[in-house]
Amino acid sequence: MGRLTIETLEQIKEAIKDEINLLFNEEFDLYEDTVIRYKDKNILLFIDNLETLLRDSEQIFSEFNNNLPLNWKVLVTSRVSITNSYLIPLKTLKKPSAIHLARSYINRTIGNDIDECVIENVVKQAHYNPLAIRLTIDLYNAGKEIPESIHIANKEIADFSYNNLIETISNNGVLVLETLFIQDGLTRHGLCEFLQKDLDDITEAINELNRTSLVIRVQNNEDSEEYKLNSSVKDLLLKSPRNIKCRKAVQEKIAKQKTLANQVEKTQLTQGIDEYHRYYIPSLSNPSLTVLIGELYKVLQQKNYNNSKIVEQYNKFDDSKHLYNKEAIFHRGMAFIYREMNDISNAVQSFKKSINLNKADSSTKLMLAILFRKNNDFKNAKDILNELIHEKKWEENYNFGQIVFSEYFRTLLYNHDYEKVLKHTENWETAKLYTKVLGCYRASAWKRKVELTIDTDHDTTVEAMSMAVKTMNLVIENHGYFESACAETSKIFDQIEICLLKPEYREYSPDIYEWLTFIETHILNIVNSRYKYYKEDAEHTIHLLRKKDISNNIFNSKRWNEYLKLTFEFSIDIHEAEKYHYVICTIYNIPVYTGGGYSRNLFAKDIDLNQYYINEDKFKGSIDEWKRLKIDMRLAIKPEVDSSGKIGKTPPVIEALVIDE
Q1: What percentage of the chain exceeds 70 in pLDDT?
Q2: In whole angstroms, what is the distance from residue 347 CA to residue 355 CA?
Q3: Is 133 part of a structural domain of the chain?
Q4: Alpha helices, H only, 528-630
Q5: What does the H/E/C string look like for 163-186?
Q6: What's residue 414's pLDDT?
Q7: What does 383-399 look like in DSSP terms, one character per residue?
Q8: How would you label 602-637 residue by residue, b for 16+ Cβ within 10 Å and e otherwise?
Q9: In the 8-state DSSP scheme, what is residue 89?
Q10: pTM of the complete model beyond 0.90
Q11: Which of 94, 162, 380, 570 could lock 236 by a disulfide, CB 3.0 to 4.6 Å apart?
C-alpha cells in the first residue's frame, strides 16, 4: 500500500480501494465492493503515522479494524499505542546500516565525499536514528558545522515528536502531565485529589498516557502504583503553549488549596485547638483533605444550621471517600456527618474505622464513647472510658481529662451504678487532679440515691440527702461557683423541695435545718453566677419553702421578706396618691393567653366596686414590671373622663402606678 498522509478514516478506505485497483487491475468505485471481492485474500495493510487519526478518535479506528475481513492484517506505526493491539517496538539501526544510510544520503544530496570518521560520529551522535541522520546531513549541507548540526537535529526531532504527540493527548491527560510536573510521584487517588476529578476520568487519562513514553510507573512503599514524568520530557513540557495554559490552572488550584489549609491551621492555633479537641485537624500532607474537614467543622460549629448543609457535606465526603479511605481524620468527619443525620449505626462504624487507622487517637475514642452513652449503650461507653482512664492521657491535658472523667461518671449514673460512683470518688478530697469533678459527681450520686429510696426508706433518704448537701458545700467552699457546681446545686435544691412535700420527712428537724441552710447559703450566689438559674427560679423556690409547715423556717425571716418584696421604679406612697387625687384600686383580673405571651391589659376595682380597664401603655413602668403585676396588688390610677367630666362604666385609665406598700 502506498505512503499517504492519513487524517481521516475515509481517506484510509479510499487509499485501500485505489491500491487494490492498481495491484489487481480492478476498477472498483466503492471500498465496500473491494472488501467483498477480496475478503478471502491474505492482504497486509501498512499505515504510517496513525496518530493523526487516533487524535480524533481511537474508537473509530477500532471499529474499522474489527470490521476488516479475517484474512486481512494491519501493520501501523504510531507514537500512540492502540488498545488490544500487538506491539512491535522498532529497534534502532545497527551501526553498519546507519553508516550505509548516511553515505547513500550524502551521495544523493551533496555529491562529495565526507570523511568516514565524520560519518561515524554523525550516526553515533544521532543515536542511529534515520531521521536525525538525514536532518544532520541537511543542516551540514546548508552550511552548519557537524557538531552544531547534530545538536539542532536531535533537538528538532524531540520537539517535533513531542509537539505531534501532545496534540493527540486529551485535556485530562495534559492536566495529569502538569500535575506530575508540579508534584511528581502521585497515585491515581492522589491525582484525583489534586485535580478534583473522579477516578474514572483519571484512570482514562492514565491509560492514555501509559500508551506513550511520557510517564513511567513505579511501585511505592505501600505497594501502590505511582506515576512520574519521564525525565526526558520535562523541558519539553515546560515550554509547550498548551501545557503552560493547563499548568497555570493546576498551580492556581493547588495554591488555593494550600491557602485554605493554612487558614485552617492558623484558626486552630488562634483558638487554642489542640489534638484533644473534637474539632482538631492534624497537619496533613494533602491540603485538600484539610480543607474538606475544615469546611465540615465550620458547619458543625454554626448554631441551628440548615439540614441541607449537612446533606451537602455528606455528598462532598461521599464523592471523596475513594481518595481518603486510608485517612483516619476522614472517617472521623464521616462519623460526625452520620451522627448529625441520626444514622447512629454508620456513625459508630466510621468512628471505629478512624480508630483502627489511628489507634493512638484518644479524642476519637472519647467521641465514640459519648455517642454510645447518648444512645444508652452504657456497656460499650464504659469499656472505652475505662481504656481512656488507663491510658492516663488525662494527666497531659486537663480539659481532655475533665471530659473523660465526667463522661465516665455520667455513664455510671445513667446506668444507675450509684454505688460504683461513690466507691470511685471516696477519696475525692485528696485527689491531685479533678477534685471538683469527682466531688460534683459524688454529690450527684448521693442525690440520685435519694430518688431511689424517697418513697421506701426515709432514714436512708435523709442520710443520702445530707451527704449530697455536705459534699456540695465542700466543693463550693474549695472551688467556687463553677458551672457544674451550680447545675448540681440547683438540682439538690429541687430534690430538697420534693422531700419537704412529704409530711413524713418534716420530723427530721436537724437535717431539714441543714438542708435549708444549704439553700439559703448558695441560692443567691448561684443566681449571680451567670449560670442558667435566674432570680425568678430563686423566688419560686423560696415561695415554696415559705409555705412548708417547718419549725424555725429560716425563709420566713425578715431577710427573705425583703428579698421577695416587689419594687417598682415609679411606685407611689398611698398618702401622696390621695393628695394628688389618684383613685386607689385593687387588681382583680389579669386575662391569661393560652397561646403564650402576656396580657397587655388588666382590670381593677376601687373600694366602691367601680371597675377600671388598664392597658399596658398607660402603666408607668417597664414591661418587666408590668409582667410582675399580680391579682390583689393595689394601683393608683387616673380614669379617663368624658367631655361632661363624668366617668363611664369600666372606663379606661390614662395613668397607673403601683402603690408602695
Answers
A1: 86
A2: 12
A3: yes
A4: 535-546, 558-564, 574-579, 623-627
A5: HHHHCCCCHHHHHHHHHHHHCCCE
A6: 94
A7: HHHHHHHHHTGGGT-HH
A8: bbbeeeeeeebbbebebbbbeeebbeebeeebebbb
A9: P
A10: no
A11: 162
Burial 370-384 (b: 16+ CB within 10 A, else e): bbbbeeebbebbbeb
Can you tell me the mean pLDDT for 217-237? 72
Considering the domain architecture, whether residues 153 and 181 belong to the same structural domain is answered as no
Q: Which of 288-302, 377-391, 524-538, 647-661 has the highest mean pLDDT?
A: 377-391
What is each CA distance from 74 to 47, 235, 258, 259, 275, in whole angstroms?
8, 35, 50, 53, 64
Element (H, E) at 90: none
User: Could you report the per-residue pLDDT of 445-479, keeping only the tens digit for each?
Assistant: 999 999 999 999 999 999 999 999 999 999 999 99
Give mean pLDDT, residues 574-582: 92
**pLDDT score at 105:** 78
Number of domains in the chain: 6
**Max Cα–Cα distance, the chain, nearest Å:** 144
Domain assignment present for residue 393? The answer is no
Owning domain of residue 112: 95-165
Only one residue has cell 533537538, namely 155
Interval 381-395 mean pLDDT: 91
CB contact at 8 A, 661 and 572: no
Same-domain pairing of 137 and 176: no
- Evaluate whether residue 634 is within a structural domain: yes
CA distance 156 to 596: 87
Between CA 185 and CA 182 the distance in angstroms is: 10
Domain shared by 578 and 546, yes or no:
no
**Residues 312 and 442 occupy one common structural domain:** no
397, part of any domain: no
More confident residue, 126 or 279: 279
**Last residue of some domain: 223, 253, 283?**
253
Residues 449 and 542 in one domain: yes
**Closest to 193 measured CA to CA, from 324, 42, 325, 388:** 324
- Highest-confidence segment of 52-61, 265-274, 405-414, 587-596: 405-414
CA pair distance 602, 584, nearest whole angstrom: 15
Mean pLDDT, rounded, of the chain: 84
